[in-house]
Amino acid sequence: MTMNDPIADMLTRVRNANAVCKPTVSMPSSKKLVEIARIMTEEGYVQGFDVIESQPRDILEITMKYGEKKAKVIRGIKRISKPGLRIYAGKDELPRVLGGLGTAIVSTSKGVMTDRDARKAGVGGEVIAYIW
């Protein structure tokens, strides 16, 4: 079965695993999904990720992160740019999620990065998702 939007699928799997406090979540891997998982790890929303080599396709396994007494680290996660409606932002219009408390994941010409990194680099791009 083909998938139209693997990024939305990834975000939905992470959102669902977070809702029921699962320790890990698995999905088919791609370069862009690995980059999004890297950003989520660097920003402290998930504990880590592994790419498991298998046939016919590699598997991306994300280890979820929770606080004391199963307190959720991820409060919300939302897909912004969709295949049917792409959302782009220039370097001056990059969004601030919750006034800077959240993170916007942006796909730029210099790779996938956070909104803060894109502002520092002086580049704009496609706004993939918000996470807070």
Automatic annotation (TrEMBL):
One GO-annotated biological process of the protein: translation
A GO CC term assigned to this protein in UniProt: ribonucleoprotein complex
UniProt keyword S-adenosyl-L-methionine, yes or no: no
Any Pfam family the entry gives: Ribosomal_S8
Keyword Ribosomal protein: yes
Alphabetized UniProt keyword annotations: Ribonucleoprotein, Ribosomal protein, RNA-binding, rRNA-binding
GO molecular-function term, one example from the UniProt record: structural constituent of ribosome
Stored InterPro entries: Ribosomal_uS8, Ribosomal_uS8_CS, Ribosomal_uS8_sf
UniProt subunit comment: Part of the 30S ribosomal subunit. Contacts proteins S5 and S12.
Described purpose of this protein according to its UniProt entry: One of the primary rRNA binding proteins, it binds directly to 16S rRNA central domain where it helps coordinate assembly of the platform of the 30S subunit.
Family to which this protein belongs: Belongs to the universal ribosomal protein uS8 family.
HAMAP family named in the record: Ribosomal_uS8_B
Protein name: Small ribosomal subunit protein uS8
